[in-house]
Amino acid sequence: MTDDKDVLRDVWFGRIPTCFTLYQDEITEREAEPYYLLLPRVSYLTLVTDKVKKHFQKVMRQEDISEIWFEYEGTPLKWHYPIGLLFDLLASSSALPWNITVHFKSFPEKDLLHCPSKDAVEAHFMSCVKEADALKHKSQVINEMQKKDHKQLWMGLQNVKALSLIAYVYLSQWKKSNKISQRFFSSSNRENIFNAFEWDLSGEDFRLRTTTERPFIQKLFRPMTADGQLHTLGDLLKEVCPSAIAP
């Protein structure tokens, strides 16, 4: 069985090779060369694309530059979705590098939220962390963390080289929770994981992202049947999104 630390490291340090290309209708003073980056899956586009913005602005006039936004094959990319989620939803079956188109005008007001500053990204990120912790651990983890730990999480997302801070903080905090971590981190006790999180009482609140007009499905789903049999991911999909299961 793979150690949980290895899984956590793979999640936080996953990268997606990406090619950014300026939209063909953007006005430039000379040809704009593509720009390549390894994007961290756990971060957000607006946090890791400052170099992309500067690269293309060098060949543009200031009056032709407005708010930057990105799209993939005609689909605007939501800045408040993690990069890995965007890739998995839209491009997981495509060849690498992931080809993203960069725009500086004609902002799609109906499809995207404006991102006025990195403060908006920070507020969104911390809200997601608190929501996940409330559903998963009844807010035990986030309540035990100090303000400086919250700041380390945010700093890690902003700095690709500092992403190790995220894994460090999460690992150190999870291990402090006796009720959850002693069972969760022990491979020999995986059969008790549902008891550790009290699934049998409240069920698991999950969120299923989609590419349809309904952006996500969220509801409670009991991980066990009435006679004690474990449900699978397939069982969950059959109930909430049967079209996702091939006949």
From TrEMBL:
InterPro entries for this protein: Atg5, ATG5_HBR, Atg5_HR, ATG5_UblA, Atg5_UblA_dom_sf, ATG5_UblB
Chain ranges of the Autophagy protein ATG5 UblA domain: 11-104
Keywords per UniProt: Autophagy, Isopeptide bond, Membrane, Ubl conjugation
Gene Ontology MF annotations: Atg8-family ligase activity
Domain Autophagy protein ATG5 alpha-helical bundle region, residue spans: 118-159
GO cellular component: Atg12-Atg5-Atg16 complex; autophagosome; mitochondria-associated endoplasmic reticulum membrane contact site; phagophore; phagophore assembly site membrane
Main location: membrane
Biological process according to GO: autophagy of mitochondrion; cellular response to nitrogen starvation; piecemeal microautophagy of the nucleus; vacuole organization
Pfam families per record: ATG5_HBR (PF20637), ATG5_UblA (PF20638), ATG5_UblB (PF04106)
Record-given protein name: Autophagy protein 5
Source organism per UniProt: Galemys pyrenaicus
